[in-house]
## 1
Amino acid sequence: MKVAVISSAMAEGARIAVEIEKVSGVEAWILVFKSRNMNPWMRLAREVYRFITTRSFFSAMRMAVRGRIRYFVKAIDDPASIAKIKTFNFDLGVHSLNVIYRRPVITAFGCGILNSHIGLLPGYRGRCVAEWSLLEGNPVGITVFFIDEGVDTGPEIILQEKLSVAQFDSIAPMKAFLFGEDARMYSKAIGAIRAGHSRLPNCLSEGRRYYPMSKLFLNVVEELLQSSVRA
Amino acid sequence: MPIIDQATVSKDRRLLLIRQALDIRRTEVREEGKRRLSDSASFAVLRIANILGKPRASMVLPEPGDWWESTLELEDFLLTAASDGSFTLLQGQPAKIAAPTHIGKKTAANALETLEMRYRCPLNIVRPAESPIFEEALRYLMVVDRAERVDGLCDQLRWILLNLVALRCRVAPDIRGLDVLNVFWERQLKPWPQTMLAWSLLGSYDAALGSFA
């Protein structure tokens, strides 16, 4: 199975690619796309920073030596980029790029594109869903699902896990932890796809879309996390 | 890995923290609102200034029926409702104008016209069947409107949508709707405009903050 990690940084892509290659029969690639409004020097600085923080430099080098990294100078939804992606015949894409995909991009990856969402679908779609889950007294977790053109509306959920965040006393480290779980979750999801596990429907009527939270409620969530740690 | 036990923070504690936060915000809205409103010469605005800081009456609605109509125009109705004034609702025919979908795809003028015709009596926004337009209002305000377009019509559209959201949250509390109002309060506090729609929003926001149990 040929899987492409779609990323805006080589370090991020390598961090995920290394993990998904642990699934037997998976051949991981990294597709790096240009970030919006970022000059080449900023991009280089960000790569260096991410190589340090994700410790993925040697993984990326190994991928590069095997010729499994491709840089794109144009945006992912540019027809030239889509045409080039199609030449690789990827079976699956894995999302690690801050964009909403359009239909031609999604269909350029055989089965589609997976997203690791830091909320439990179908209940929590949109932004700040970990914070909203805590504010509403519900479990926090991650859902891996097939992306469509909407915001967390893809109809098929591959897997989801509730996760403990009780050890975090503030939002930033909690979210860093949840976002950092994406590689492990992608790996498990690809394993589930290869094993032919059944999928769950993402029933939109059973959930709601959430938006960035106000400072007022973010403070409440901070207090909830601190109360949880104290408890 | 153990699953977070949300019960480590009891439901009572969680609701208490939310209630405390809303009370703090309500005090802020009342103090800031009164300070800004008290210089106004408008009777309607002074009524809102007077009601801030007093216990708010819960809105008593008649039987749902098909659709409500009112003798007041949209902005007058919003001001009256915001100051707990009395208004008369009449049973009418279902609105002939369909609820706008994808507000951001319309021109501001077109979206405004549709909203003003459909919600001439804005209280109809509280009907359960109006949930899609409520959701679209939240989406527009939090996603599309974040581009912060500054022309007058976009401003007018934003304030009407905020008033509709506040009115609905007052009658049918919704924590996401309330938080959209929180976000706009935090963003707009300093350049709060001197318009009737902005004043009526102050009154309705205050009431919505108080109605969340």
## 2
Amino acid sequence: MYQLKNTLDGGQVILRVADYANIPFDEANTDYQAFKKDLANGVELQDANGTAMTASEITAFLATLK
Amino acid sequence: MAYGTVNTDIVSDSSGGRLAPISSVFRNRIINGGCVIDQRNAGASVTITNTSNTTYTLDRWGAYGSQASKFSVQQNAGSATPPVGYSKYLGVTSLSAYSVLTADYFNLLQYIEGYNIADLGWGTANAKTVTLSFQVYSSLTGTFGGSLSNASNYSYPFTYTISSANTWTTISVTIAGPTSGTWATDNSRGIQLSFGLGSGATGYAGTAGSWSANYYLTATGTVSVVGTNGATFYITGVQLEVGSSATGYEYRQYTTEMQLCQRYYEKSYDTNVVAGTASSLGEFFATGTSDSGGNCYASIRFAVLKRAQATMTGYKGDGTGTGSWQYERSGSSGSFASNFDAVGYGGFRCYTNNGSAGFTATVIYGHWTASAEL
């Protein structure tokens, strides 16, 4: 399970809940690559408020990522 | 012969060992080939349970199993005597007698960054020949396998033979560089070196001795280490170099080897302390006044520039929590979620958001790890 976290610099990071790892939105980061693959496989993503995103919301979110 | 020319490509020392010319310093494209660096586990055993992604064991060495918990990896597992000239090895131990399914594969691997193989010219008509050499020791005998591949679709399976069980054996495999395939020359995966530990008949195993447009991780018909409960497979002195013959293992000073590893993984703890352990050694402390929003920051520089923006994890120095740091101020103390931002190749920022203005004289402290593995 993942959760989006807002950061003080105005951006976001991805919190991997299992081990509290903070994953940056960097295409070269292999954890980020795994995050996108996991989402495509149905792994849960929560928004910054801790609310689970729906499948359609995740699809829309993925579409915003390159 | 013209003055200043040395008409040989091999120089031997008095005992017959081959010496490389000075110009080939850093000829080994493998990092931690001598298995001396183990930042994550400090010599502890790791069972490979993740069937989705590579699990990193000793620095730069990954392991993967399509079925969980079939083998473990540990520096100097089994306490065998390393080969002469080495102090450490990477040890694989099979945890069951598993019969691999058709699509299964189990392997030990190292991804080599594209920047470090850019000179090989792979994928072009000028592709250079390379030689892989290593020391290997196993409780099993027979024909073992491995491969060189790109990130996804081009590979060269190879085989090698271990004739005597529980005996260190020197292996050398020379491979003509591929004139086809796509080989990254940037900060992504350039070459993947894989040692097979068991693989099904199809999918990830291919015919040894030739390049093909497939993602083969080992050769067909090779020994399955995971097929024998308690079987061992130890390896060290791994070297991949340009040329058609193996030269002596390139020993690099410990500091240099550590710095090469830290491009991909770094931690605030001492070298022999596993992240999450109670330890104040190396723990980061910052004292300051929070801003109007109650935020107190700490900016930290990495010892070595990272390959990519790193995955950051925070730890409490008292060993009681992952994902958090601690704070103190007059009359108050506690912990907070370790928030990281501004994570660049050279450093990052960690902060607490206490949510109250004038949260003065705050001390924040904690440990961290940064992973930018391939």
